[in-house]
Amino acid sequence: MKPEVIMLMTSSLDGKLHPSRWTLTPDGERKNWGAMFESVHDALEGDAWIIGRITMQEMSRAAAHPPTSVPEVERPLHVATRDAKSYGIVLDPSGRAHFAGGTIGGDHVIALLGRNVADAHLAELKADGVSYIVAEGAEIDLAAMLETLNRAFGIKRLLLEGGGTVNGSFLAAGLVDEVNVLVGPAFDGDVAQQGIVSHPGGLAGTCELSFRSATPIANGMVHLRYAVSRPRSA
Ligand SMILES: NC(=O)c1ccc[n+]([C@@H]2O[C@H](COP(=O)([O-])OP(=O)(O)OC[C@H]3O[C@@H](n4cnc5c(N)ncnc54)[C@H](OP(=O)(O)O)[C@@H]3O)[C@@H](O)[C@H]2O)c1
Fold it and tell me: pLDDT digit string (tens) for 130-184?
């Protein structure tokens, strides 16, 4: 079974994802928006969240620390724990994210890795108490990863929390069930800055959004919700 996948992002009015670059507002401060993201995250009641490698490296700044001698490692799956209250998952095809332990923000870490990741990295993750799934094909098959997350860890509702690249990958693969965007009263304005979704060649023809709700929350922020479905012609 595929877990339900719910995207959650904070965005400026022009769809950009770096709040530190946005115009200011008398309606509130950036820290208010961060707190609102956390509160909507909790209200969505996911049992796991997933982010891209770049976003994870902003959260976990540990350096590489592979063991000096590499024991035999498990492939494709290592389950360090299957009864965590919540899981923090990273899509990390080359094994570039490192951890100081088995949790991030209190949630058990699972790394989704490419098949060429070295045994030394798998051994490092295992020693840190991190779970992992290694892709079996040349590319990471996101649908297969979701099935394994459900089967091996019991994950039923996954919050997809950026950045734009990982969001774009899941949308293009037709794996997202709902999009939630917290729009702040601000512009970025720099065309060179990333948007909340990005995918090579764009997403036209890959998905359709239908309106669910628009709820003013606080500090000038509006919570938009859309259901996502496959295109009718697909
Ligand atoms: N506004 C918000 O709510 C919000 C939320 C989250 C993050 N952010 C911001 O977003 C920025 C990062 O966004 P980003 O788009 O540059 O990076 P990202 O999505 O965090 O990470 C992208 C990386 O994840 C891996 N990846 C993504 N999709 C993949 C796929 N289908 N298969 C294999 N690997 C895949 C690749 O890693 P490799 O490069 O190693 O191949 C890719 O370069 C950060 O600065 C963060 O602060 C904002």
Answer: 999 999 999 999 999 999 999 999 999 999 999 999 999 999 999 999 999 999 9
- Nearest Cα to Cα of residue 108 among 123, 89, 126, 93: 89
pLDDT digits 0-9 by tens, 88-139: 999 999 999 999 999 999 999 999 999 999 999 999 999 999 999 999 999 9
Does any ligand 1 atom lie closer than 6 A to the CB of residue 94? yes
State the pTM of this model.
0.97
Instruction: Give the other-Cβ count within 10 Å of 172's Cβ.
Output: 19
Q: How many residues make up the chain in this entry?
A: 234
Amino acid at 40: V
- Rounded Cα gap, residues 159 and 208, in angstroms: 19
User: By the 8 A CB rule, do 229 and 208 touch?
Assistant: yes
Domain-by-domain residue ranges, the chain?
A: 1-47+156-234, 52-141
Closest ligand 1 atom to residue 37 Cα is 3
Q: Is 184 in the pocket of ligand 1 (CB under 6 A)?
A: no
188 lines ligand 1 (CB under 6 A): no
CATH code given to domain 1-47+156-234: 3.40.430.10
Query: β-strands 222-229, 178-183: how paired?
Result: antiparallel
Q: Where are the beta strands (DSSP E) in 53-207?
A: 77-78, 87-92, 103-104, 107-113, 131-134, 157-160, 178-183
